[in-house]
Request: fold
Amino acid sequence: MIKIERYENSGESIAPSYGRAEISAAVSEIIADVRRRGDEALIDYALKFDGVRLKGLAVTEEEFAAAEREVEPGLKKIIAAAAENIRQFHKRQIREGFSVTREDGSIVGQRIIPIERAGLYVPGGTAAYPSTVLMSAIPAAIAGCKEIVMTTPPKKDGKIPAAILYAAHAAGVTKVFKSGGAQAIAALAFGTESVPRVYKIVGPGNAYVAEAKRQVYGQVSIDMIAGPSEILIIADGSANPRFIAADLLSQAEHDKNARAMLVTDSEDLARAAAEETERQLSALSRGDIARASIENNGRIYIVKDMEEAAEAANLLAPEHLELCVKDPFSMLDKVKNAGSVFLGNYCPEALGDYMAGPNHTLPTSGTARFSSPLSVDDFIKKSQYIYYPKEAFGRVYKDVAGFAAAEGLTAHAKSAEIRFE
Reply:
């Protein structure tokens, strides 16, 4: 049964779940091995971790064609509709550079340049996630990335799930490789004989993937270091406990370490939601995973009012925040820290996972206090430029030299002065 308790402001957010010493050491060894042995290491790890003996790492054109035939027409339509919503939302994020010409003829500006080669990690194992393919690849394509390289673990038969390959083709992925876990992150970061080295890696994964992204950061850029999935629901007495329970369980079924939380000012709703959560658990296909998550990490917090509920949300900074209250828009402005906010009783988190359009790769473990959902911005970089004609620089070179001298950098000062000696 999910625990019910009074909310107390401890001043602590959700603790990050990555970086355990044993995981860190194991990941470090895997990265070093991939750097040393390349494709051979990836093939060995596929046998060790995925139980499959691969003949090659790259997905072939024949495999893409087979996936096209295998995916049912109904699912193709769903993927197409989701992709269009994601595309329309992310197109609004496109940035433009700027140029400023001053009266003295000097020009300063900023250019927006797409990252040339992006790497996408799509998790596998216990489930297949074509939605993650769309959420990662579509913003990269919109940003203008020339190469979008994807890695994902193969099934026991050596194949990639058809829906994942179909989504990859629909979203603009240019290459797909059969590799998962920390070894895939290492391959993307350093390159192998088959896998090209990328400049940025995005996408969720387990604790080993998260730790690998942490260790390769600096060699490449990353989107974030994601922990287990989490949801916080703020609900008043008007909310439906059946809806609440279903939404809590939708996160709990992800992972035994997932965190599902309800904050409410209604003790009646708290008890009803707890009972309904227990009742719905028995019908889930991933009930064992969901039960472990609910019993270990699930919480229902009782607060005195909605002001305290908003305070709790801002402290916890959840990945997903549902506002199941009478007037959700009036509460929206009170929320400062959340990855994605779902407004009203008919806006479950699953809607955002698949169809609504906003990205579902979100900051976890309290990092929504300072970071953002995956977006087109993750696949661009900014470059500045400066132009000063002689006359314009002549008006300020003494100031440049004076500033440099104040910092003790005489060579800097000389580089300005020498042009007018």
About this structure: The chain is about 45% helix and 15% strand.
